[in-house]
């Protein structure tokens, strides 16, 4: 018997949902005093890469890898001072974005659990 398990990408609602999440997320990131300064003024290229990455990370098409190769996300974040507080701030902005686009609490918890490991894996500096 074959079982079918939906991916987070499918459960969230696919391409349109990922786009809405990213569009809700980045204004929160830019406004956050701990992490906003880490991002460029022109946030649009960052948003597009995040959309491609989250699509792939949540089990959708391999858009990021097709365009940019292996994500190597830890290496890409090394130039930035990522503290535990900044990782939590990033997750907090994502939590708010998920709520804003009406993702259920149960699904939001699964998304945040999936993102929490990488967010903390990127920490490369002690607490401030």
UniProtKB/TrEMBL annotation:
It holds the Pfam family Bac_globin. Keywords: Heme, Iron, Metal-binding, Transport. Heme binds at residue 120. Gene3D superfamilies: Globins. GO terms for molecular function: heme binding; metal ion binding; oxygen binding; oxygen carrier activity. Belongs to the truncated hemoglobin family. Group II subfamily. This is Hemoglobin.
